[in-house]
Write a structure and sequence with these properties.
The structure holds 2 protein chains of 2 kinds.
Chain A (H helix, E strand, L loop, with lengths): L2 E3 L4 E5 L4 E3 L2 E3 L4 E8 L6 E5 L10 E2 L10 E3 L8 E9 L6 E3 L3 E6 L1
Parallel strand pairs in A: 2-11
Antiparallel strand pairs in A: 1-4, 3-8, 5-6, 5-9, 7-8, 9-10, 9-11
Chain B lengths: L3 E4 L2 E4 L4 E8 L5 E7 L6 E7 L2 E5 L6 E7 L2 E7 L7 E8 L11 E2 L3 E5 L1
Parallel strand pairs in B: 2-11
Antiparallel strand pairs in B: 1-3, 3-8, 4-5, 4-9, 5-6, 7-8, 9-10, 9-11
Classes of the chains: A mainly beta, B mainly beta.
């Protein structure tokens, strides 16, 4: 069965410190991985996807197929990064469904 | 227009009422979705429409009835709901292309539903 695991419900990090939000997935096929972010009182929006290999708002994520991980990283946290982050998996050439992890709330401390 | 819009923003209804949620997008996307999101939880998929046809129904109770009148509109008709159905209902859309299942979903702001 397909599964996305985000082991941390809450992650508190001081401003300026590095951030790493963990995501592991379980899927036997060819997945596409995403990070979605939900800021307070804003809509859920895409932060980045693995095929783009780009950095958005200073965040990067590399797909590691050996470890089945897609951790989200940022070298220096900013207060505006406080939000709910969801790792998600899409099953390429299978259907239009996205499987979300349970989410990690990132709290940046001043 | 690169947004998904949803109306109303808030809805309060009794258990005997009939109401509808509306979703609209003009990005030319041919896949549209309904999700239910409870507080501090991830979105739970309810329905997927692909090319205006229902392609996924995640065993949603019949008191929720989706409708896709055309490629830009998606409705969710509500009837005889229960208090536990109170949640944020999100609409999303995506392209359906050669790499099905691999396209970004764009979310609307949601309708906050309260069932009394």
């Amino acid at each position: 069965a397909q599964r996305v695991t985000q082991p941390e419900k809450l992650l508190s990090v001081f401003k300026g410190a590095p951030v790493e939000l963990k995501c592991n997935y379980s899927y036997s096929g060819s997945p596409e991985l995403f990070w979605y972010v939900q800021y307070s009182r804003q809509r859920l929006q895409l932060l980045l996807r693995h095929i783009s290999r780009e950095s958005i708002k200073g965040f990067t994520a590399d797909l590691n197929k050996g470890e089945t991980s897609f951790h989200l990283k940022k070298p220096f946290a900013q207060e505006e990064d406080s939000a709910m982050y969801y790792c998600a998996l899409s099953r390429v050439n299978r259907d239009d469904k996205i499987i979300f992890g349970k989410g990690t709330r990132l709290h940046i401390l001043p | 227009d690169t947004e998904v819009t949803q109306t109303p923003k808030h809805l309060v209804m009794g258990m005997t009422n009939k109401k509808s949620l509306k979703c609209e997008q003009h990005m030319g996307h041919r896949a549209m979705y309904w999700y239910k999101q409870k507080a501090k939880k991830p979105p739970e998929l309810m329905f997927v429409y692909s090319y205006e046809k229902l392609s996924i129904n995640e065993s949603v109770p019949s008191r929720f009835s989706p409708e896709c009148p055309n490629s830009s509109l998606l409705n969710l008709h509500l009837h005889a709901l229960q208090p536990e159905d109170s949640a944020l209902y999100l609409c999303a859309s995506s392209q359906v292309g050669r790499d099905r299942g691999s396209d970004t979903q764009y979310f609307g702001p949601g309708t906050r539903l309260t069932v009394l």
